Each structure stands twice: as C-alpha cells, then as structure tokens.
Amino acid sequence: MKWHVITVPKQDLGLTLGAIGLGGGTVTATKPSGRSVAITYVTTRN
User: Which domain of life is it from (predicted)?
Assistant: First the structure.
C-alpha cells in the first residue's frame, strides 16, 4: 500500500475523485483550504 496526498482546485474535485477511484485508489480524507482541497488516498500499487 502506498499513501498519497495531493492538492487540487475545488473546481476539479469531482474529476479528481473519479480518477482516483478508476485508478484503484481509496480516498481516506479531504480537507478544504481556501480555493483548494487536500486529498489523502491510498493505493495498493506502487
């Protein structure tokens, strides 16, 4: 398992969550910060 933390603009949140899911990732947390959102997710692939 590998943990990832990325920051994306709020307007791209839906697209990003969809891409993470399609790539086999599982979102574990989101944290809004101004115009951005930090997303923490885990994958089983390296």
Answer: Bacteria
